[in-house]
């Protein structure tokens, strides 16, 4: 079991707490001021920190120490000791990330309850992140085609370095999963992986979201960059980053530091930067929508992520994998794939790549037959297939509807497909389909399309109640 570091300027108190904890089977270390405390933590982060708020003869008070611990060793739980009548300070400490506080004078039972709970919470958190990592490393990167193996070979080469990687590939091809693979196999695997959805941040909130904020009422709220300290920050779809944000990110990459909104101190962070794009950034630079200098900083090691059409031979293993995932996470039937279904899937167009395949598998398992192998007839027939001269071929069903209903049916199906293709992200769907975000929201409402979270992913579907009411 890891040990407990007790920091208090009163020798009697730290020795008393230490005696109690050692009687309970914990090992302890002691510190009487902030310097001793920081050198103990730097030598070896403890399993738990018990920290007095007021420290005499110290360069840092308890709150400063707490901030440093939450920044550099966020997994170490901190229990605050506060003097009687200092509840407000203790509450402020909790806002800064302390697990709990005990008020002096305290009794042994109270102390033990708080410590056991703090240790348990931190154990669960660590286990949880280990599980998440295992999920990514062992099961998520599926494939054996040549194109896939080439990519994995390149990912393996960059895991050991700290170089900035740019993943280039179409939407849904697995860029984020590739970034997570680099993280999980690097020496930063135990530190955070934080995704910055470049299109999704409102331009007026960019600084707050990335750099955090400081105010007297709410204390320090760390932004995404600070949350990623020691680990990896993943800029998803950098081409969608507004120009103003690009300059701010560039400055951070050059200076290696930033200021929180409302704060005056410089915050230094240690980050590995991975970014992704599905656009051709050279033409974005020529069109003056992307800053060339930022491109060169991000594009140190470019890695191509192949589209699903470039790795069609992986389709059967990927589909089997998604059937298994749907079975274990949602209890959907565990079915095989018939040879005809596999053949059809391997000849289809996949503009939404692996994400589209995953959604298709889920849809067939929900709507299709409940047992037996998946047959080709259960896969969506390509109703709105393009004819050779680019015109849309009308299927029987659509052709029998009045124009208004046919248009609605088409719009509903089209937008459902697009939203799911963009993983439920309305901003990106809006930008792809060429509508304003608010107009798209209105449209979806009128068509009865809603989004909800299913097995951790945002999915779009038709809200039956809304469409019935409209009819
Ligand atoms: N090789 C793979 N093995 C298993 N699942 C995969 C693989 N590649 C992609 N996926 C799955 O496909 C979906 C899309 O992948 P991901 O989000 O990584 O794509 P992306 O290229 O980052 O998409 P976008 O550009 O739209 O953000 C995810 O659910 C992911 O788990």
TrEMBL record:
One GO process term, biological-process aspect: phosphorelay signal transduction system
Single GO term (MF): ATP binding
4-aspartylphosphate sites (modified residues): 52
Keywords in alphabetical order: Activator, ATP-binding, Nucleotide-binding, Phosphoprotein, Transcription, Transcription regulation, Two-component regulatory system
PROSITE patterns linked to this entry: RESPONSE_REGULATORY (PS50110), SIGMA54_INTERACT_3 (PS00688), SIGMA54_INTERACT_4 (PS50045)
Pfam families: AAA_lid_14 (PF25601), HTH_8 (PF02954), Response_reg (PF00072), Sigma54_activat (PF00158)
Keyword Ribonucleoprotein: no
CDD domains: AAA, REC_NtrX-like
SUPFAM superfamilies: CheY-like (SSF52172), Homeodomain-like (SSF46689), P-loop containing nucleoside triphosphate hydrolases (SSF52540)
Residue ranges of domain Response regulatory in the record: 3-119
Sigma-54 factor interaction domain segment(s): 141-366
Assembly and oligomerization: Interacts with sigma-54.
The protein's role, per its UniProt record: Required for activation of most nif operons, which are directly involved in nitrogen fixation.
Protein name (database record): Nif-specific regulatory protein
Taxonomic source organism: Falsiruegeria litorea R37
Gene label: glnG
């Amino acid at each position: 079991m890891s040990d407990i570091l007790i920091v208090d300027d009163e020798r009697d108190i730290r020795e008393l707490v230490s005696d109690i904890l050692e009687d309970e089977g914990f090992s302890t270390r002691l510190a009487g001021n902030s310097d001793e405390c920081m050198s103990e933590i730097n030598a070896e982060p403890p399993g738990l920190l018990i920290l007095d708020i007021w420290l005499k003869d110290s360069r840092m008070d308890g709150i400063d120490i707490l901030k440093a611990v939450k920044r550099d060793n966020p997994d170490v739980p901190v229990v605050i000791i506060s003097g009687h009548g200092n509840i407000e300070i203790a509450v402020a400490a909790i806002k800064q990330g302390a697990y709990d506080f005990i008020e002096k004078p305290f009794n042994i039972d109270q102390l033990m309850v708080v410590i056991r709970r703090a240790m348990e919470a931190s154990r669960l958190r660590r286990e949880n992140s280990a599980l998440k990592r295992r999920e990514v490393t062992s099961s998520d990167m599926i494939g054996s085609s040549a194109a896939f193996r080439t990519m994995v070979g390149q990912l393996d080469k960059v895991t050991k370095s700290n170089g900035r990687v740019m993943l280039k590939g179409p939407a849904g091809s697995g860029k984020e999963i590739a970034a997570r693979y680099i993280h999980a196999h690097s020496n930063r695997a135990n530190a955070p992986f934080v995704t910055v959805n470049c299109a999704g941040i409102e331009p007026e909130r960019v600084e707050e979201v990335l750099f955090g904020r400081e105010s007297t009422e709410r204390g320090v709220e760390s932004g995404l960059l600070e949350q990623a300290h020691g680990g990896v920050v993943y800029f998803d779809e950098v081409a969608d980053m507004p120009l103003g944000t690009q300059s701010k990110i560039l400055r951070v990459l050059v200076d290696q530091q930033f200021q929180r909104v409302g704060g005056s101190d410089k915050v230094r962070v240690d980050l590995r930067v991975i970014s992704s794009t599905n656009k051709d950034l050279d033409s974005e630079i020529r069109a003056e929508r992307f800053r060339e200098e930022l491109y060169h900083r991000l594009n140190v090691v470019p890695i191509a992520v192949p589209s699903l059409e470039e790795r069609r031979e992986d389709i059967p293993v990927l589909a089997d994998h998604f059937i298994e995932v749907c079975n274990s996470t949602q209890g959907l039937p565990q079915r095989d794939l018939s040879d005809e279904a596999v053949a059809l899937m391997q000849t289809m167009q996949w503009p939404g790549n692996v994400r589209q395949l995953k959604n298709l598998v889920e849809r067939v398992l929900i709507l299709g037959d409940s047992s037996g192998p998946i047959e080709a007839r259960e896969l969506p027939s390509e109703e709105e297939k393009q004819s050779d001269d680019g015109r849309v071929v009308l299927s029987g069903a659509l052709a029998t509807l009045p124009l208004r209903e046919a248009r609605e049916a088409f719009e509903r199906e089209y937008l459902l497909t697009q939203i799911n293709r963009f993983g439920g992200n309305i901003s990106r769907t809006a930008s792809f389909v060429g509508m304003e975000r608010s107009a798209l929201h209105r449209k979806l409402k009128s068509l009865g399309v809603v989004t909800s979270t299913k097995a951790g992913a945002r999915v779009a579907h038709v809200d039956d109640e809304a469409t019935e009411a409209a009819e």
